[in-house]
């Protein structure tokens, strides 16, 4: 009897071990232990976590996608369309050849006047009545405006003239630093304004101009979110740069300073 019970005990032990092996095998097929930075987590291979990594609490997080590299337009960055006029880049007494805008007393660079005319016609076709509040402004006119503002600020003696000049730079562009002197910039409003008051303007017109300007080769030169770079916030000020560049800048949310800087970095990297 003792021998019979011994044989049964052995058979029972073997069957029990076999059962444990089957269970362990199935568990191995459906789960997997993964160790990440000292943390161990059990993952289900059927959860679709390919291309992901585990956080410390075993929560799958997406792997960051690489930042796409901008492919710059193939242009001559020194061409007239990309002239930069600001407080850091004075164009001195540069004088373009300009022609009247639609027979008015405002002027624009003759090389781009056809694109401006198309821009204005597009606005009219959309139901608006665009008005050129300011176009080309020569160096002498800008100097007159700037000096007048500086004199006005220093008039009562609160500021020295030197201090007034610095304060005037925040209100009026110094001569040689105005976009209007390039002959490629226009202030477009719904009517003539002696003082540019945004609250009084047709917001729908300005919104249309901003949305569609790139189609005609123009950019909104001084958008509100770029004021720290450009120095100005003027939703009525549009600048010609050509259709290819205008589309690229609009798509990538670039102001002119940022756009030109990309080419400087590209040249430096060579």
Describe this structure as you would to a colleague.
This protein has 270 residues and is α+β, with helices and mostly antiparallel strands. The chain has 2 domains: 39 residues, no CATH class; 150 residues, Muramoyl-pentapeptide Carboxypeptidase, domain 2 (2-Layer Sandwich). The chain has 8 helices and 10 strands. Strands 7-8-10-9 form a 4-stranded antiparallel β-sheet. A hairpin with a 5-residue loop joins strand 3 and strand 4. The longest helix has 29 residues. It is globular. It starts with a helix and ends with a helix. The N terminus is likely disordered.
Total DSSP helices: 8
Radius of gyration of CA atoms, rounded to a whole number: 34 Å
Task: Please give the domain count.
Answer: 2
Helicity level, as a percent range?
25-40%
What share of the residues does DSSP label as strand, in percent?
A: 15-25%
Shape: globular
Q: What is the rounded distance between the termini? A: 94 Å
The total beta strand count reads: 10
CATH topology assignment of the largest domain: Muramoyl-pentapeptide Carboxypeptidase, domain 2
Would you tell me the structural class of the helices and strands? alpha+beta
Biggest sheet statistics: 4 strands, antiparallel
Query: Strands of the biggest beta sheet: in what spatial order?
Result: 7-8-10-9
Overall pLDDT score: 84
User: Could you name the ranges where pLDDT drops below 50 across 5 or more consecutive residues?
Assistant: 1-5, 27-56
Order of helices and strands: HEEEEEEHEHHEHEHEHH
Reported CATH architecture of the largest domain: 2-Layer Sandwich
* CATH class call of the largest domain: Alpha Beta
